[in-house]
Design a protein that fits this description.
Rossmann fold; single chain; mainly alpha; six-stranded parallel sheet; Na+/H+ antiporter like fold; 568 residues; 70% helix
Length: 568
């Protein structure tokens, strides 16, 4: 029996080497993604020894792109974006523009065409979803304001990149590439019009029909009780919709899969869909990164070291500085600016997708692809260092720079209560930290009973909306003493903490008790371990979600049985 099967040998080599290099990467505190790229480099035609089938690898990578974009759509939250829209939307667009312009000018100075330079610039402008989320989650920043801003910024970048993926084939000929739309006889404006019409038709169908059909389909399949069938439904939806989008609507696989995930999020089973599809998504994502690594030519480090350094400079320094300045201009603190800058100083999967599309359209050479890959490998490897440097850099700047101290403690119109605030909100009031799902319900209960309260919330946009509703609120992190002082914690009767972060919780409690030793404290806990720890520290009255749910259900059950006993 012949075991020399190209597909199987390529997959076996890809997975085996990805495991080895991914493990090594994690051990040296570098994202596993770097290891996957190195695995691809090892089996690429550009390195000696065994090399995999590049054509097969590229087809497998297309599946990886579909499932990656499906996952992005499945986790896409319009509410998260709207919560930070005032900083995320302008910030992401301006930063991408700056990076694209810098990349284009740099490439044209090397003698490249405008089209090649534009594709290179666009590839350097978008950060990696995988790297960013991993970095933020590992540092417990996902639920923080800084984390939300970084994620919202990333969502805008993803949406803009998806739009670019749709429009780039239409503009390819104008930019000096090959015609991918098969409409060479049509004028450029007609080609763009047809493309936009087809894309709009696809989006409309997905939002009108798909938004109802896919959640309904998941409901029906979930009703069968078959886990295998449910997983198959999720994966089949992602890949089939992406394929249909490409064939019928001339839409990229990426956009089709993204919308499949986005409309599936409307289902009550979206979390289960994300969990069930995760193993296969991760597996093909590994193959995607390995296949990208197979396109990389390591000789670029020897042949064009200055070009590599220039690309890395734009990614790590240019993008980070642009993000830093934009956040400061938009009147956010220095800490937020440094965190966002560190988050976005890298490139990843979207850059590879854009660069790959550029190559297929004849706009980007293999040298350009190698430069993008070199920039990605170095910037991803450097990203943990950038995150680790945020706190030391902030402390150093605050110590030696008056300008930095000014930006850290800048005037924020929402950082303190208005001068005309009634006295009942300044003395004997309730201070409510966090206005999420729990905090909002507590606030509504307090308003029903006409109990005065002041909200301390990190989301400036939310504070602005609350004030429009007549609710007293201050903007900022309650772990900072100045925020509680502005909420008049000194004279408050009660402090309610409805945030999920345990570390911030302890800081808030310590500050509150320092300023008001007699204050009553009520805390919302999300896990049993957290509850035990908080009660051990005697922080205050602790309400644990599951415990309170069990008490209420028990109370309801006992009341029903007591009534039945009385009737008997």
């Amino acid at each position: 029996m012949d075991h020399n099967i190209t597909l199987i040998s390529t997959i076996a080599a890809a997975f085996g080497l990805a495991l080895v290099f991914g493990f090594i990467a994690e051990k040296i505190k570098v994202p596993a993604l770097v290891g996957y790229l190195f695995a691809g480099i090892v089996i690429s035609p550009n390195t000696p020894g065994y090399f995999g089938d590049l054509e097969i690898a590229s087809q497998l990578s297309e599946i990886g792109v579909m499932l990656l974009m499906f996952g992005v759509g499945l986790h896409f939250s319009l509410n998260d974006l709207l919560a930070v829209k005032r900083i995320a939307v302008p910030g992401a667009i301006v930063q991408m523009t700056v990076a694209t312009v810098l990349g284009t000018i740099m490439a044209m100075s090397w003698g490249w065409t405008f089209g090649s330079g534009l594709v290179l610039g666009l590839s350097l402008s978008c950060a990696s979803t995988v790297v960013l989320l991993q970095a933020i989650e590992s540092r417990g920043l996902l639920e923080s304001m800084n984390g939300r801003i970084a994620v919202g910024w990333l969502i805008v970048e993803d949406l803009v990149t998806v739009l670019i993926l749709v429009l780039l084939p239409t503009f390819a000929v104008m930019l000096g590439g090959v015609d991918a739309t098969k409409d060479a006889a049509n004028p450029w404006w007609m080609s763009i019009g047809i493309t936009l019409l087809l894309v709009s038709a696809f989006i409309a169908i997905m939002l009108i029909v798909g938004r109802r059909f896919l959640p309904w389909l998941l409901l029906q399949v979930a009703g069968t009780g078959s886990r295998e069938l449910f997983t198959l439904t999720v994966i089949a939806s992602a890949i089939c919709i992406a394929f249909i989008a490409a064939k019928l609507f001339n839409v990229s696989f990426a956009l089709g899969a993204f919308f499949a995930g986005m409309v599936m999020r409307e289902s009550h089973f979206s979390h289960r869909a994300a969990e069930e599809s995760l193993p296969l998504r991760d597996a093909f994502s590994v193959l995607f990164f390995v296949s990208v690594g197979m396109l990389f030519d390591p000789r670029i480090f020897v042949d064009e070291p200055l070009q590599v350094l220039s690309v890395v400079g734009i990614i790590i320094i240019g993008k980070s500085l642009a993000a830093l300045l934009l956040v400061l201009i938009l009147r956010y603190p220095l800490n937020t600016a440094l965190t966002v800058a560190a988050s976005l100083g890298q490139i990843g999967e979207f850059s590879f997708i854009l660069a790959g599309l550029g190559m297929s359209l004849g706009l980007l050479s293999s040298q350009g692809m190698s430069l993008v890959l070199a920039g990605a490998i170095i910037s991803i490897a450097f990203n943990p260092i950038a995150f680790g440097a945020v706190a030391p850099i902030r402390n150093w700047l605050l110590k030696y720079s008056a300008l930095a101290r000014k930006y850290e403690n800048r005037d924020d119109p929402y950082a303190e209560l208005p001068m005309n605030t009634e006295s009942k909100f300044l003395q004997g009031q309730v201070v409510l930290v966090g206005y999420g799902h729990v905090g909002k319900r507590i606030g509504e209960g307090l308003m029903e009973r006409d109990i005065p309260f002041v909200v301390a919330e990190q989301k400036r946009e939310l504070v602005q909306d609350l004030r429009k509703q007549g609710i007293k609120a201050v903007s900022g992190d309650a772990a900072e003493p100045s925020v509680l002082i502005q909420a008049h914690i000194t004279n408050a009767a009660m402090l309610i903490i409805a945030t999920p972060d345990l570390f911030d919780m302890k800081s808030v409690v310590d500050t509150a008790r320092t300023l008001n030793p007699e204050i009553e404290i009520v805390v919302h806990a999300r896990t049993e371990d957290e509850t035990i720890l908080l009660r051990k520290d005697n922080i205050g009255t602790i309400f644990f979600e599951e415990e309170e749910l069990a008490k209420n259900m028990t109370h309801h059950i006992l009341n029903r049985f007591n009534n039945k006993t009385k009737t008997v």
